[in-house]
What does this fold into?
Amino acid sequence: LQRVSAAPNVAADAPLELQMARDKWVRAEKAMSDKDYDLARRLSTEAAVDARLAETKADAAGNAKALAQVQDSIRALQEEINRRSPR
It folds into this structure.
């Protein structure tokens, strides 16, 4: 959770998932202090899964942006080729 929280793209691209992970982590810590170890284990596992989901969603958003840039470059090159080719 700390590693994922430190990544700026995660906070920007998956804020809800990151907040869910943080909330579950806080609840897991409370369960630990209350000696409810089963609940603490379940919540900490869910927090880890939510953090991975946030990271994956942010990665997907970054990949989508990169793909859009590549597609724009291809489109620009195709337009340049079309302008330069004899008709």
Summary: The helical segments are 2-6, 8-13, 15-33, 37-84. The chain has a mean pLDDT of 93.
